[in-house]
Design goal:
Helix content is 29%, strand content 34%. By secondary structure, it is of the alpha+beta class. It has an eight-stranded antiparallel beta barrel. β6 and β7 form a beta hairpin. The model has no long low-confidence stretch (mean pLDDT 97).
Length: 204
């Protein structure tokens, strides 16, 4: 299983229109392969949409995208609102749940850490040991390492019922020994964004 994260920067003020255009097309696109999630940014880099597509492999991705275009099911007619488009392929790590329909938000925190080469492998065992305790504070949506795009990146996504829920969870980190201690070097760079789900996202 691979996951394609497509992040589009849209023009300021155009987000409601863009969401409407994607919603108009999503049922047809889901006939080819189903979307995993559709979010837009609330805190962090604004005016971004993030749509996540699970695929069996790269061949499945390429065939699905080709069929959707040939049948005129995708993409939505929203190119005039796009400023920048980025696509990355991520592989789920061993403790990542699959993307299935879940009502666990509506706020989601995406945290992306960039490591030195070979350090993610050293970091993962400590995370796997602690992930169950961490998930009692807030559900883990997914955890991935980058495969195509910028490499040496680790992404973890958490669901929260509210921003206060996020604050409350983080205040309990020390009680569960989070973040985990490992033999890996600290990340070189860390970024995060808070996103909310569209009404047609399977993960809300």
């Amino acid at each position: 299983m691979i996951y394609e994260f497509r992040t589009y920067q849209v023009k300021a003020g155009s987000l409601p229109t863009v969401l409407e255009k994607f919603q108009e097309k999503i049922d047809g696109r889901n006939q080819i392969s189903k979307i995993g999630a559709f979010w837009f940014t609330e805190i962090g880099p604004l005016n971004q949409i993030i749509h996540v597509w699970p695929y069996d492999n790269l061949e499945h991705r390429n065939e699905s995208r080709k069929e959707a275009v040939e049948k005129k099911l995708w993409p939505p007619d929203a190119s005039e609102y796009m400023v920048k488009m980025n696509s990355e392929i991520w592989n789920p790590v061993s403790f990542s749940p699959e993307f299935t329909e879940r009502n666990i938000g509506p706020f989601f925190e995406m945290r992306i850490y960039t490591y030195q080469p070979d350090q993610i492998e050293k970091m993962l065992p400590a995370w796997e040991e602690k992930i169950e305790a961490r998930s009692t504070l807030a559900p883990l949506v997914g955890a991935f390492r980058s495969d195509i795009g910028d490499v040496n990146k680790f992404m973890h996504i958490w669901a929260y019922e509210s921003l206060q829920h996020r604050t409350d969870a983080r205040e309990k980190f020390s009680s569960i020994g989070w973040p985990p201690k490992s033999n890996a070097s600290p990340p070189l760079y860390m970024e995060n964004k808070i996103v909310v789900s569209s009404n047609f996202s399977p993960i809300k």
